[in-house]
Amino acid sequence: MSLAVKADEPNLMGGKKHFQLILFFCLLNINIFIVPCTGFIMKNCKISYNIALCDNSKLSTVPQDIPSKVKGLDLSGNRISKIQVSDFEALPLLTQLELNHNYITHIDNSAFSTMIYLEKLNLNSNKLVELGEDLFKGLSNLIELRISSNRITTVASTAFKSLTSLKLLDITHNRLRHITTVQLILQHLPHLQNLFIRKNFLTTFQSWELTNRSLELSHLDLSQNPIVVLRITADVFPNLTWLKIGDSPGKQQMILDVHNKTFLSRVSTLDISGLQMAFDDMKTLLQTVNTSLRSLRMNSMKRNLTALVYISCTIPTMSTLQLRHNKLRTVSSDMFNMCINLKELDLAENRIESIRDDAFRPLQRLRILSLSRNNLSSVPVATRNLPALEELDLSTNNISGLGCDDFANRTMLRRLSLYNNSISVLKECVFKDLVRLQVLKLQTNCLSKLNDAFKNNLPNLRQLYLNRNKLTAIKNGEFKGLQSLQNLSLHENQINNLEKGCFSGLTNLTDILLQKNSITKDEINRGVFNDLISLRRLDFRDNYIKYQDKSPLEAPPFSQLSQLETLALLSQRGRGKSELPNNFLQGLTNLLVFNARDIQLKSLDKDMFKYTPQLQTLDISSNELQDLSSELFSPIPNLKSLYISRTKLHSLDFLNNANLSQLEFLQARENQYPVISEETIKSVPALVYVDLQGNSFICDCSNAWFLQWIKSNNQTQVYDGFNFVCNHPPDLKDKKLLNLDIGSCSVDVQFICFVSTTCVTLLFMVASVTYHFLRWQLVYAYYLFLALLADKNQKNKKDNNQYDAFISYNIHDEPWVTGELLPRLEEEQGWRLCLHHRDFEPGKPIIDNITDAIYGSRKTICVISRKYLESEWCSREIQVASFRLFDEKKDVLILVFLEEIPTCELSPYYSMRKLLKRKTYLSWPRASRHTGLFWEKLCQALKTTGDFGEDRFCLTVVDRKNKISQPV
């Protein structure tokens, strides 16, 4: 495939070919058919170098799952019939859009308005009939627009209004009939340089109908229109350098009218192939470009060819002449008499059988001559008269032999093409004078022997093509004279014998292709490659290289090829399983690509790659390995692409410990992986593309994480993930894997977080409200709980009351207790009282002392004051006493108030208020005038047994004066 495009020829390739050129350099490595750049899953597309490739996918609409960051989108070869405004709204960064070869009949106005960065738009080969108002609105940065091979008859006046940056417009093969339509287009395109309106229905082309101003056009193609009149009356094309007219489909001759010969004075490339025009007009046309013409194409001319060649060769600036498809059988001696300045002559695709020996004698400056695809039976003698010739193309003729004088004295020749002939024999002397030859193409001939043709000749040859011949052996020193050779193609021969030293002298060789021959392991084990110290690529596909065991080789075949970067052993033929010796790759310290596809391997030794630490691409697909060890990959941490399709692997778990942190591309089709684990995916953190088509997935919760990852990951592109199918269980067989409901397989972390957060928030709110309004009730409940615990301890003790009463008081009220209470009750009445400062056991926990004192006394007397209510320990004492009161159903609690405390002040002490409502109490302030009665009532309270069933005594004092009953 040639990538050369001549500088003076416009690029007329369609969208598909354009993308092929973009991707060409991406596909150089063996089997790397796509190199991705971003990650996601799409139903019908794949990503390569930031270009979404959705071509030939039978799409009827523009897919909506294309990532918004892609720069290119190829939708060619689909079934899209309509473009809507919403189709490209999510793709604002597109710079190139391919919509060719669809069925588009309608495009909404402003359908492309969001693509402000779009530079190239291809709408070739659709079914558009008209271009409506504001069709290309928003495309102010568009540079190339291709809408050829549609059915366009009408163009709205504002259709091209927004295309202010457009430089190339290809509207060939449509149904435009009037030049005024072209005028509507051009009036909005101030920077248009390339206009191609070939193969329409234009019958006239007159400059005043086209424009009234000078255009920037440099390339104009008007060919294959039935133009009757071509009239240029003003200098509207001052920058035109490339003009193509002719190939008229009608029989009427074109009338040429150029008012001033300077109007086309800058045209350097003129193509008048197939032009039907009167000879005088043709002569006038050539005279108008007399001072600028460099390249002239007169293919398929029906008459006056020799005369036109004569006239054109009088143009002093013309250096290139193309005369294809002119049905020439003989080249006469006078045809090129005037072509003394010609440097390139193309006579390909004629029917030339003979050339007069002196036919090229005038062409002393000729550098390039093409005679390909003719009927020549030998190398024309006429070529010997071309001393400056650098390139000679004699391919696709009927040449059967080469003589020693065929290229005599051709010391300037640099490229020689002899492929696709019938050459069967080479003589040793045939290339003896080609001392500057750099490229020699001899492929597709009938060569069976080389006969030392390259042993002493061609010292500057860099590329030699000998593929598709019938060579069976390469003898010792066969290429010894080719010390500059870099590329050698020997593939598709019948080579079964490589003599030792057959590649000696090729110290600069970088690429050798030997695929599709009959080479065996015995041939390569002879050390035949030891001389190729600069070799970088070696291809052995389709040979008979087979080893039966892993035993190390005494002399590894590639031990001297330290510069080798690519080694291919694909498609090995022959029956039976094979092995590779564990030192097969010894010496290949710079190997980057190793291809061992389909060589019937049954295993790989764990030390296989210890000699190739730089390996980046490994293809071991189509073998029956069944299992791989993680140790196999330990020596190659730089691996970026791994191909393991059709290897009968049951698991990818070997990746878990393989240390492939740089792996970007994984193709593992048609194996037997039932489950893809989370650990496996996380073991290749750099993965951007994975192909797992045709595997036996289990559709249950074991693949739940994998399914979730396919849908949600934004790094790795899972090729064809939407078409993964279930193999197990039987009731789900052939169902789509991504349709599996995994809702019940895992806990919804987000929902749990929501519930947890809600609960914590509610708990905080409840705690806050409770603390603000019910904190004292909580304190009471806490002490009640402590009392409960104390009560459980006391139930195991005997009911033996050590004291008559436990006095619960605050330290601030101690003077009243020691000055009033103790003398009255203990000294005068003989009651045994328990006081904390006197009777608590030292070293014992306070709460235990309190509990023992309360339960060890018949009664508890609480001396209550404001300080008492504020005391933490006093609160605990009354809580324990209260709990005993409730628990034993006995009146064991006596309340004595030293101060008048209003009920409103007791409101925080909810338990105290309840006690006051259920019990009578003694009040010292109210008994100030009747202290005797106070102490009498207190003694009576101490004497009672405490049963609630006893007759109650009144703890009130009667004010005899006022006859009012009140608490004592």
Textual characterization of the structure:
This is TIR domain-containing protein. It comes from Anabas testudineus. Helix 9 packs across helix 12 and helix 9 (749-795) packs across helix 14 (872-888). Among the domains are: 15-201, Leucine-rich repeat, LRR (right-handed beta-alpha superhelix) (Alpha-Beta Horseshoe); 625-742, Ribonuclease Inhibitor (Leucine-rich repeat, LRR (right-handed beta-alpha superhelix), Alpha-Beta Horseshoe), CATH 3.80.10.10; 769-967, Toll/interleukin-1 receptor homology (TIR) domain (Rossmann fold, 3-Layer(aba) Sandwich). Strand 19 (295-297), helix 5 and strand 20 form a beta-alpha-beta unit. With 968 residues, the protein is of the alpha/beta class. 19% of the residues lie in helices and 15% in strands. The protein contains 17 helices and 49 strands. Residues 1-38 and 948-968 have low confidence and may be disordered.
Q: Helical proportion?
A: 10-25%
**Topology, number of strands:** 49
Mean pLDDT: 85
Rg result: 51 Å
CATH class placement of the domain at 769-967 = Alpha Beta
- The number of helical runs is 17
> Can you name the CATH architecture of the domain at 769-967?
3-Layer(aba) Sandwich
Distance between the termini: 121 Å
Strand content: 15-25%
CATH topology of the domain at 769-967: Rossmann fold
How do the strands and helices of this protein lay out in sequence?
Blueprint: H1 15-24, E1 46-48, E2 51-53, E3 72-74, E4 82-83, E5 96-98, E6 106-107, E7 120-122, E8 130-131, E9 144-146, E10 154-155, E11 168-170, H2 179-186, E12 194-196, E13 204-206, H3 207-210, E14 219-221, E15 229-232, E16 242-244, E17 255-258, E18 269-271, H4 279-288, E19 295-297, H5 305-312, E20 320-322, E21 330-331, E22 344-346, E23 354-355, E24 368-370, E25 391-393, E26 415-417, E27 439-441, E28 463-465, E29 473-474, E30 487-489, E31 497-498, E32 511-513, H6 521-524, E33 537-539, E34 566-568, E35 593-595, E36 617-619, E37 641-643, E38 665-667, H7 678-682, E39 689-691, E40 697-698, H8 704-712, E41 717-719, E42 726-728, H9 749-795, E43 803-808, H10 814-828, E44 833-834, H11 836-839, H12 846-855, E45 857-864, H13 866-870, H14 872-888, E46 893-897, H15 903-906, H16 910-918, E47 922-923, H17 931-943, E48 956-959, E49 964-967
Helix pairs in contact: 9-12, 9-14, 12-14
